[in-house]
Amino acid sequence: MVYRPFSEHENSMSTKAVEREVSRSINWDTLTFIIIFHAGALGALFMFTWKAAAVTAGLWWVSHSLGIGVGFHRLLTHRGFKTPKAVEYFLTLCGALALESGPISWVTTHRIHHAHADSKGDPHSPRDGGWWSHIGWLLAGTAQQHPPPVLRLYAPDLMKDRFHVWLNRWYYLPLTILGFGLLAAGGWGLMLWGVCLRVVVGWHLTFLVNSATHMWGTRRFETSDDSTNSWWVALLTFGEGWHNNHHAHPTAARHGFRWYEIDINWYNIRVLQLMGLAKSVKLVKQPPNLGEN
Known about the structure:
With about 290 residues, the chain is an all-alpha fold. Helix content is about 60%, strand content about 0%. The protein has helices spanning about 10-20, 30-45, 50-75, 85-95, 105-115, 130-140, 150-155, 155-160, 160-170, 175-210, 230-235, 245-250, 265-275. Helix 3 (about 50-75) crosses helix 13 (about 265-275). The longest helix has about 40 residues, at about 175-210.
């Protein structure tokens, strides 16, 4: 099943469903884990080694480029291309290493965002405050934890896949296994760098797409939301900062439309395509009046 945009009637229904699940009470479990991981990230700074830095850089690309950008976002959420199930599941496991909730919950949040971008029902719009859009929505909002009716409404395709359903429940297991592996291979320093520091930095870079690219930057397309293109967010997130391009053409697998708009996630997809592992890749033909913004 391919995800499709909601009709006006379905948008009204989905807005009510989202509103029912949102509360402004503190999500204590989420807050506790955020504090623990930030403390671990701080501790990692006192245990620097070049080995730990190199391993962390590699895992950052695996988890946040292959996993979040290519897997969770451009493949699972928007179906910008197709892959064999084995490749889809591999990319999903990579995304789980970012510890940004399970794949179905992540996809649901992002589809809600696109359905109600910067309007009533958006889970993390800067119109509710910059802090709210960056991290407040995790501390006292949906926090990616959606009830089954909302998951079925926004991600019916993934809810029919037993692997995605399983991983959505046990999404922390891949990172837990990785953590024990790093601890055994290199001690606490390697584990804190490869898990805590990487996850925390990855969180905040992902959050910048929710906050910064709806607050600052340039607008090539006059979309109904506040999305912008931000070159510096794009550099930090493997290409996710070309956010106005993305909101104008959400199913496009390529977000950087100009040659100078560096989009590493697209380069990854292109490599998969050349290997015969990515097919039906959706692209946008550039209109003749495309500006230089």
